Amino acid sequence: MTDVIKVEGLTKLYGNFPVVNNISFSVNEGEVFGILGPNGAGKTTAMEILEGLRSPSSGKVSVLGMDVTSERHKIKHDIGIQLQASAYFEYLNLTEILKLFGSFYRHYVPPEQLLDRVGLLDRAKDTLGKLSGGQRQRFTIAATLVNSPKVVFLDEPTTGLDPQARHNLWEIIREIHNEGRTVILTTHYMEEAEMLCHRVAIMDIGRIVALDKPKNLVFRLDLPYEVKVMADSHLYADDLRSLDGVDDIRVDPNCAWYLGTADAALTMESVLSFSVSKGIRLTHLEVLQANLEDVFLAITGRHLRE
């Protein structure tokens, strides 16, 4: 596969503090690549260096074969950037803003076409102040595509949106990818990374602590499954701990037991055999797969939202 983005030993210092600390990765052509991590992990700083908006303290970064420091003016014609916080001209309507942005590039997409693809054609003559939060985010995506970029950078694209608006934006991002574009996005939403990204780099305190396909990261865990068990009579920890494949147990305030296991099928079979032999009626039996939140917790000892 062709590397559209290549990062080697990237470091960014503020004073003596490394906000981005010697990270290396590559992004394949046509890939949706995610950088997942909590606030303050260094995601946005790393993205802004990739976009040519900040200079690195050390290391090499290339986008589409061009150096982001020495060739940033050439790169801008082939990339689209959606910033975490964007400011637009307050008194221009959506069409006028897109026309203005398009004038900065050699080639640009007509505003009507951009607004239509994000479902805002009927708001073409409105100013941004008249849009909802979800509509504003969709407009930022339209502005990102004004030059028909080969690579699209999205920094926390769904932060602050309600679940419905978030899912609508995910669908637009999928459409952008399906057109053959490479997408790199930052997020602190575990579900967003799992749903959209082919590969994910997990960042913490300026470093990349894991990088792989989401499912591969999950299955590297010692216990990638939990079997959730509830019954109409009391269950005892020692009995559950002795079941086949169970390596960890916990119970919640609702008396639901969670049995950590590397072999969900084996543990399910053991739970069923145990319940029959003891005459226990199960009221709930479910297999839960671990997620990227569990991966982050296993690596760092902290939750993503801490």
Features:
11 helices; single chain; 2 domains; elongated; 306 residues; Rossmann fold; 4-stranded antiparallel beta sheet; 6-stranded mixed beta sheet; Alpha-Beta Plaits; ATP hydrolysis activity; ATP binding; alpha/beta
How would the blueprint of this fold be written?
Layout: E1 3-14, E2 17-28, E3 32-36, H1 43-50, E4 58-63, E5 66-67, H2 72-75, E6 79-82, H3 94-102, H4 111-117, H5 133-144, E7 151-155, H6 163-178, E8 182-187, H7 190-196, E9 199-204, E10 207-212, H8 214-219, E11 225-231, H9 237-241, E12 246-251, E13 257-261, H10 264-278, E14 282-289, H11 292-300
Parallel strand pairs: 3-8, 3-9, 6-7, 7-8
Antiparallel strand pairs: 1-2, 1-4, 4-5, 9-10, 11-13, 11-14, 12-13
Helix pairs in contact: 5-6
Compact summary:
Belongs to the ABC transporter superfamily. With 306 residues, the protein is α/β, with parallel strands linked by helices.
Report on this model:
Strands 6-7-8-3-9-10 form a six-stranded mixed β-sheet, with helices on both faces. It is 32% helix and 29% strand. Helix 5 runs parallel beside helix 6 (163-178). It folds into two domains: 3-213, P-loop containing nucleotide triphosphate hydrolases (Rossmann fold), CATH 3.40.50; 222-289, Alpha-Beta Plaits. It is elongated and about 75 Å long. The protein contains eleven helices and 14 strands. The protein is an alpha/beta fold and 306 residues long. It has helices spanning 43-50, 72-75, 94-102, 111-117, 133-144, 163-178, 190-196, 214-219, 237-241, 264-278, 292-300, and strands at residues 3-14, 17-28, 32-36, 58-63, 66-67, 79-82, 151-155, 182-187, 199-204, 207-212, 225-231, 246-251, 257-261, 282-289. The mean pLDDT is 93. Strand 4 and strand 5 (66-67) form a beta hairpin. Keywords: ATP-binding, Cell membrane, Membrane, Nucleotide-binding, Translocase, Transport. This is ABC transporter domain-containing protein. It is found in: Cell membrane. Its main location: membrane. GO terms for molecular function: ATP binding; ATP hydrolysis activity.
